[in-house]
Design a protein that fits this description.
This protein has 13 helices and 18 strands. The strands form four sheets. A seven-stranded antiparallel β-sheet has the order 2-1-6-7-8-9-10, covered by helices on one side. Strands 11-15-16-5-17-18 form a six-stranded mixed β-sheet, sandwiched between helices. α8 runs antiparallel to α9. The N and C termini lie far apart (about 55 Å). The longest helix is centred in the middle third of the chain and has 19 residues. The protein folds into two domains: about 280 residues, Rossmann fold (3-Layer(aba) Sandwich); about 110 residues, no CATH class. By secondary structure, the chain is an alpha+beta fold.
Length: about 450
């Protein structure tokens, strides 16, 4: 489970910003909190981030996605001689040359880990991993490894071929990434959290339905997904999934048309898709043998009609695409980060996702969901605690500030939806004039 995350000098996060999933001392909805045995803390399973457009709320979870991508891909995919791909704060000249830093506190198998790194355009400046195992006495910090540029120090508790992996680690790649590529047994659980139990859902989701379809090759999962779609009152009666060998089809088309460029262009497109997926912090979820799907709807006289992705509604595709990351998170007890939960999704379906993660019976492994949204309906109707709500707001220099609702000490029965829309907690757009859209015709606008 994720305890907290921090990021500095990443996109609009100029100064260090922290997102904490540690429950406060509030007494309401105790079932929404996972109590950690052996640690004097509870963790919430839902965190909602609100803010005006361009306030930086997406960048809070994109920072986590960047961490995931760096852990998975820096050793394998970052160019050995090339610059490190990063996005520093661009509205301050000094920030462009300053380092960026990322860190998380995780709970894995009852042990708290603190992992992080700092980097610039050329190299990894720092990297560290500390463990806090629960024993009979007070919890003590165990330094597993730390890195200052090219100097590595390893703790006694980190058993493995650390020296050999150190020599394989490039100045512009993470030691954790290199260790995972070389099957370092002690570090694999940390790597797997980023690679497998962390799910990032970007705003652009055109490939997510295909990834969900790929899961349906397992009959039990296909049946579960059909039941979920039917329960969402979308008029769906079934799901058809078939495997298509794209390479064979492209070769056949190239031969039929005597045009080799068809195959070359197709392969180039696949590589671009893979690259964009890795940028989002996850592996390419399907191969050249892809699973295409059509959704079955019932019509008049019990007629069944199959709708492909191009014929299906945006709302149905949005829900279908979300099912893969949500089911993976629930099944593994992982963390799903969703940018704009309400994108093309009915408010009642968004509410149901919040209820799913809040319910310990349906979410027995304590999976978490972190999402950005403009849907204030969640504030008024979802089973959400006051310490699960966060806001983003930009300062005059363009930097994002992330802060919790609890800073305002709202009353237990306070109407949070109304308070937010009235600007009581900030994080809403300041519209200078009520008639700013009164004359949208540029030809008649005053000069």
């Amino acid at each position: 489970m994720l305890i907290r995350s921090r990021a500095r000098n990443f996109r609009s996060l100029k100064e260090e910003q922290e997102l904490s999933l540690v429950a406060s001392s509030l007494k309401d909805s105790p079932e929404a909190v996972t109590q950690v045995e052996g640690l004097d803390l509870g963790l919430v399973r839902v965190a909602a981030i609100y803010g005006a457009n361009a306030s930086g709320k997406s960048n809070v979870i994109k920072a986590l996605a960047y961490m995931s991508s760096a852990v998975q891909n820096s050793q394998r995919w970052w160019a050995p001689e090339g610059p490190i791909p990063r996005e520093p704060f661009l509205l301050d000249p000094q920030s462009k040359v300053d380092s960026s830093s990322f860190e998380v506190d995780l709970l894995l198998e009852g042990v708290r880990f603190h992992y992080g790194f700092a980097l610039d355009d050329r190299e990894i400046l720092e990297e560290w991993l500390n463990a806090y195992p629960i024993g009979k006495g007070p919890i003590k910090k165990q330094m597993w490894f730390k890195r200052k540029a090219k100097t590595f120090t390893f703790g006694k508790k980190l058993v493995g071929d650390n020296g050999a992996i150190e020599r394989l680690t490039r100045p512009n790649s993470l030691f954790l990434s290199a260790a995972a590529q070389n099957n370092h047994e002690a570090l694999l659980p940390i790597y797997k959290w980023f690679a497998e139990t962390f799910q990032f859902v970007p705003r652009e989701r055109m490939f997510l339905p295909l990834a969900t379809a790929e899961m349906c090759r397992i009959d039990e999962i296909k049946s579960l997904i059909i039941r979920i779609l039917q329960g969402a009152d979308l008029g769906i009666t079934g799901l058809k999934v078939e495997e298509v060998d794209l390479l064979s089809q492209m070769r056949r088309a190239a031969i039929d048309k005597a045009d080799k460029s068809i195959l070359e262009d197709g392969l180039a497109l696949l590589e671009r898709v893979k690259a964009r997926t890795k940028e989002g912090g996850s592996e390419f979820p399907f191969s050249e043998k892809m699973h295409f799907f059509s959704i079955l709807h019932s019509g008049s006289a019990s007629m069944m009609t199959a709708f492909g992705p191009n014929s299906e509604s945006d709302g149905t595709l949005a829900l279908f695409g979300l099912l893969r990351p949500l089911l993976l998170a629930i099944g593994s007890g992982g963390t799903a980060c969703i940018d704009e939960l309400d994108a093309s999704l009915h408010p009642l379906l968004a509410l149901e996702i919040v209820r799913l993660f809040s319910d310990p019976k349906r979410n027995p492994r304590g999976a978490q969901v972190i999402f950005t949204t403009h849907d204030t309906n969640i504030l008024g109707r979802a089973p959400i605690r006051r310490d699960q709500i966060w806001f983003t707001e930009k300062d005059s220099a363009g930097g994002t500030h992330l802060y919790p609702l609890t800073d305002f000490k709202p009353r237990k029965n306070e109407n949070l939806e109304r308070g937010y829309l009235q600007g009581r907690y900030g994080a809403v757009p300041f519209i200078g004039s009520p008639d700013f859209l009164a004359n949208p015709n540029p030809e008649k606008a005053e000069r």
